[in-house]
Protein: DUF4046 domain-containing protein
Amino acid sequence: MPSQIIERYKRILSGEQKRFSPYEFEEMLYRKQKVQLVLRYAIEQVKKWTPEEARKNLCPKDVMDLKLHLVKEFIDPPIEAKADDVYYLVEYAYPYLPRPGEKQKALVVYMEVLAGKRRHFPLHYFQTLKGEERAKICFEYLWQELLGIKSVYELPSLFTRTEDAYQLLRKYKLKILVDTLYFSPFDMVTEMYPELNDPKLWNGNF
Structure:
């Protein structure tokens, strides 16, 4: 039964037992509940943290010290998570915790790429409909915040010349949008903003 998992986890923490049985999490019906029970016990009973404190303070060393790597393998990390991130273990344990929206998450990733904290965007980050949403969030941040452009109708003047457009996108780490989603910078801009798909706005230069 799921409730017995804590007794086995206590034995692991005390050193009496090295790991969980390979069959412990075999039943999908109980797997999530068992993982949550272990995480909550570690956070509340061992570390004496609130869920909010755990999300803020939990680090990779804690995960190893608390033997949580034994259950981490059963949790799919969010696409935004870096290799050393562990915050999502807490979010898995407490699904009711408020979480940042897609826009906030995408902007955090983009800021980290711009700052060099990430070498590149996560794999497949701009694929699927959700990926297209992330692409537009990042691109809008580029022209609204980084370039200080006030109106979407100013974009054609920046993206009319293809090579200039590529240079701009490279500078701000967004050339990947054209590489993975669109045929050209023009295609990207007019797909995101259909109102700009007017030859008069582009002086006939496509």
Summary: The chain has two domains: 2-93, 102-202. The radius of gyration is 23 Å. The mean pLDDT is 93. Residues 102-202 form one domain.
